[in-house]
Amino acid sequence: MGGREELEKFWSELSDSYLKNSLQKLIEEEGLAGCYTYWSHSLNEEAADFTMILDEGQGEFSIEMHKCPSKGMLLQMKHMNPHHAYCDHCPALYKPIVEKQGLTYEHEIDCDNASCSIRIKQPKK
Description:
This protein is of the alpha+beta class.
């Protein structure tokens, strides 16, 4: 069917419709702290193994995902191999929302080990 292009279009539509009323709204209301509010709820709800740091003095928010629950579950399955780019959905969903709010979004993904890191920063004044 549509391949990667259609998948990215789907992710964009999800980002626009789902995150507009949650992450985007929280960043508008709370600034960088809105990232902490959003992910502390969602990652705890998913029972993820992670560390988050909000350093408002430095204008930085970070997540170290030690073990992503969804990718970790897929890696444990013996009857299938997850797609090599499974983890690409996270930056595709979150980066546009974060950057629309004037913040920078950086990530490193180790999809083979179900881990990643995200850094969101306010611009230097």
